[in-house]
Amino acid sequence: MNLFLLLLFIATVCFVAYKSKGKDYFLPTSDNNMALGLSYGATLISTSALIGFGGFAGWVGFSIPLTIIIPECLLIFLATAYIGPKVWQANKKIKAKTYIEMIGKYYNSPMLSKLLALITVGLMPFYCVAVLVGVGKFITTFTGIDFTLAVIGFSLVAFGTIAYGGMTSVLKNDMVQGLIMLAGTFVVLAITLFVHMQVPDFWANLSNAWTAVPEGDPLRKLGFTGFLSWPDFWSRGWMMIMTLLIFTIPVGLITLPQLQTRWMMAKNEKSFRTIASWGVVIPLLAFTTFCIAAITANSFTFANEGKTVIQAAGGTANIVPYWIKTGFPAWLSSALFVTVLAAAFTTLNSLMHLLSTTISNDLIKTEKPKLSIAYASMGAIVVLALLMTVAFNGQAAIIARATALYFGIIGASMLPLIIGMLRGHTDGTNALLSFIGGASTSIFWVLFVHSKESKLFTRVTLDIGVYNFVEPIVPGLLISSALYILLTKIRKNTN
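Structure (tokenized):
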């Protein structure tokens, strides 16, 4: 059954791509505001959110959804309703084919455009890994297909649809898959709230499940005290939760190039009312639903097996697939399987398209046909992402970590530039130095300070206690913002 659904899903996305081939591979204008809103929301929510952060929530408890619901909802709406029209207005004059090109031309800084393109291309494979690991584990769990074969096949399908239909294919597939995601998350939410959470002793079992966590478990060492409570104030766990969910994810929502591209495709300013509404619905519903569903799994797993859900599933990336397969009827879990496929595809196709257009339009300046370069570059990046996916398969929390890495570095270096656009600033030197300061600080923090990544990349971690768990976006954003403000004042006084 699940294999049939997988094949049906592939046939559907290929058919939509076939019917939606457009003249403009790079940045077509869309009259369908609902499609843009659904595409925005669906691109934001991927397996990194549903499987990665959902599994993360299943591991640590209610502190995840309670912390992120309000800032995420507010930031998505404000960004789309307020920043979106400003970006659209700027590009109406510039007429750029990519978001990166628009930033470079707005600040009249080719070097800024090049550096942003390099950072994007360098980091994007990590985010692709987050998506591919999530969908690969899901396909393996539900169909028995080998993990490596699953991620290769899924990547090739995404590659083919983009190569054929360009951005028009991405947009129309996102609309279809976004509606599937909405339907699936409604089902998960309904069953979670009205079936699972209504079982007698649900809350008692969820509270008592903490007793199954051994004393020496990393969760306790981080400062977590229960699935229904916050971690101890200023503990490593508290620092991780606050800097990840309050800074990294919300700032990423404002600055990610694949999301900004949707704003540039709008027909007019009035379009953003619809885009903002639809853009909020999918992320808010999907993220919170899968987080809460994963948390409820602890109650039932403890009641039936005397274990926490991570002990039963064998890792954070396995929690959501495990729970959907064991906690829902077989027919329903199959339907939800398609929901996760939709979440993965909508993000992966946007990332691949962004990569191909960034390399062909922003990095490589040549008289050769840009589409040929776009296809070649997309293929090369896909191969790299696949190799990284297979290599990182053994890392339990790679989905959430890779997502945070991408969001953090881009957000830290780009937020001052976007705020500068909103305020009408056009000084390219200020923008360039601010970008370099934020990006280099965040990268240094990743390589030598932040405990999760430094142990992986350099195996050198500067011991600064609890601050080793501060997300890289925090120091990077502080430096980039300070540089931008200071340089703006100095150059204003000088002039």
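The chain has one domain: 2-396. The longest helix spans residues 147-194.
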